[in-house]
Write a structure and sequence with these properties.
Strand order of the largest sheet: 1-2
Mean pLDDT: 81
Number of helices: 21
Strand content: under 5%
Radius of gyration: 23 Å
Order of helices and strands: HHHHHHHHHHHHHHHHHHHHEEH
Shape: globular
Largest sheet: 2 strands, antiparallel
Number of strands: 2
């Protein structure tokens, strides 16, 4: 058990570091591409990806989760799952080909045909690496996976920037989308050392396919719910409106997506191994939940407070129309930070049917938000999305934890400290923002307001909310049990636990 804990911590640290590199790469690419490629070109590719993205939900058929989550699995079973994945990838590529003329007619844009055809190849490329990735996850080789992710992102972004600077416009974005799974799959085959055998069906495969099917259906419902607004915007307001909305959403969601991607694989793999030990399972989940929320909140709230400066610095002056959208979407990201970890819990504990039912609750609520906001333009859709997501937080958490080893009150107990610290820090950051508004430089305004907000958040969370020991212990775990210093105070190993640790251990 101690080995599992250490491997999870090392893997989590490696994933966080790699996601930091990926975040920097994505932001750097976005800074360059936003200045070279027009909003209409982003919107053009967005018209295709919002639809082909539906197909991409089936790309692993949920079978990676089946491989990771099962207590034991044979090489023959993994090989059979590999060939099922390849079959699914080929079918999705054919469906993508077939959808090309439909998209051209729906959006009345002939350039979409070849964009759709080009993006179809990504399904086969991705399918070839699904089980190799699952094997590495199962063996908790998160450092290897982290390096592969970082290299793949660097390759795809580098190609996109080179093509954009050469004047290829939206084709640079297409190449970025296709080269990412190509580079990733190549690295996975080289590092996993696993070669698939001939398929061999047995009764255990049927149960894994059913599990994978439920996971895939769950993902499909969530995807449709969280992306239907892009279809509406593209159809009724055009490519430019969709391009502006898409960049605003991408920019505000990059930090939280990177963090959740870093934690997700580690959390599901670790929690799956702890299904038989409810006490450790509960402790592992709540610590991870607290960590994700405490890291997501300050970044997201800072985005809302300093939206104008961030948009001008990252995207440039021609994207100023994205600033109010960027601000209105911030509550959505906060809501997702509270809700998404419930997916770790439900998937790792085998409650995939409950997760599907929750997704069926989320979908109509957020779609109503989109429809209500659509007459008010892009900003109205963003605001409707956020209102719907905030309304869903309490019922989703209550339903996900009902009748399990984790009570809703446990979740709120660990969520309360970072929420309070974020609210206090946002008030101080807003005050500094008002004072520094006369400054002409957006860099200075952002540095002053963001710096005060970050410092006050950390101070309130660690000392005002009495959470210092929790984070000191976490850092000590990464350091291998050595003494650490935090803000000038040495923390010996024998320090008593805080109220947070008592509530989740």
């Amino acid at each position: 058990m101690q080995d599992l804990r250490e491997r999870a911590l090392r893997g989590g640290f490696a994933k966080v570091c790699s996601q930091g590199a990926i975040l920097g790469t994505r932001l750097g690419a976005l800074v360059v591409l936003a200045r070279v490629i027009d909003p209409k070109d982003f919107g053009l590719v967005g018209m295709v990806t919002v639809v082909t993205g539906v197909f991409s939900l089936f790309r692993d058929a949920g079978l990676s989760v089946a491989t990771v989550q099962r207590p034991s699995i044979s090489d023959e079973e993994v090989s059979t799952l590999f060939w099922i994945n390849m079959l699914v990838g080929a079918v999705l590529a054919l469906l993508s080909f077939a959808s090309a003329p439909v998209l051209v007619a729906f959006y009345r844009e002939p350039r979409l045909f070849w964009v759709t055809v080009a993006l179809a190849s990504g399904f086969v490329l991705n399918a070839a690496g699904v089980q190799h990735s699952a094997i590495l996850q199962r063996h908790m080789r998160f450092t290897t996976l982290a390096i592969i992710e970082a290299i793949s992102m660097l390759v795809s972004c580098g190609l996109a920037i080179a093509l954009a600077l050469a004047g290829f416009g939206y084709w640079a974005l297409v190449v970025m989308s296709v080269s990412l799974p190509a580079a990733s799959t190549l690295c996975l085959w080289l590092t996993s050392g696993w070669l698939p055998r001939s398929p061999k069906w047995d009764p255990a495969i049927s149960s894994m396919v059913r599990l994978g099917g439920t996971v895939t259906l769950n993902t499909l419902v969530v995807y449709v719910a969280y992306n239907a607004e892009k279809v509406l915007l593209g159809r009724y307001l055009g490519a430019e409106a969709l391009g502006i909305y898409g960049r605003a959403y991408q920019l505000i969601s990059i930090p939280s997506e990177s963090l959740n991607s870093a934690i997700y694989l580690v959390a599901v793999s670790g929690l799956s191994r702890l299904q038989g030990d409810l006490s450790r399972f509960r402790s592992f989940f709540l610590k991870g939940y607290s960590l994700v929320l405490s890291l997501t909140l300050p970044v997201t709230i800072a985005c809302a407070l300093f939206a104008d400066d961030i948009i001008e610095i990252v995207l440039g002056p021609k994207w100023r129309a994205a600033a109010p959208i960027f601000r209105y979407l911030a509550p959505t990201i906060v809501a997702l930070a509270l809700i998404n970890p419930m997916g770790w819990f439900l998937f790792s504990s085998g409650r995939v049917v409950r997760s599907l039912k929750i997704a069926l609750l989320i979908a109509p609520v957020v779609m109503i938000g989109y429809v209500v906001g659509l007459p008010h333009g892009v900003s109205g859709v963003a605001l409707g999305y956020s209102v719907a997501m905030i309304l869903l937080v309490v019922p989703v958490i209550a339903w996900a934890t009902h009748g399990t080893a984790i009570a809703a009150r446990d979740v709120w107990r660990v969520a309360w400290p970072p929420l309070v610290a974020a609210l206090i820090a946002s008030g101080l950051g807003l005050g500094v923002g008002v004072i520094t508004r006369p400054l002409s430089s957006p860099f200075l305004r952002l540095a002053a307001g963001g710096g005060v907000m970050l410092f006050s958040y950390v101070a309130v969370l660690l000392y005002g909310m009495n959470q210092k020991q929790f984070y000191v212990d976490l850092i000590r775990d990464f350091a291998g049990g050595k003494r650490v210093r935090l803000f000038g105070f040495s923390q010996p190993d024998a320090n008593p636990p805080t109220s947070l640790r008592r509530s989740i251990d």
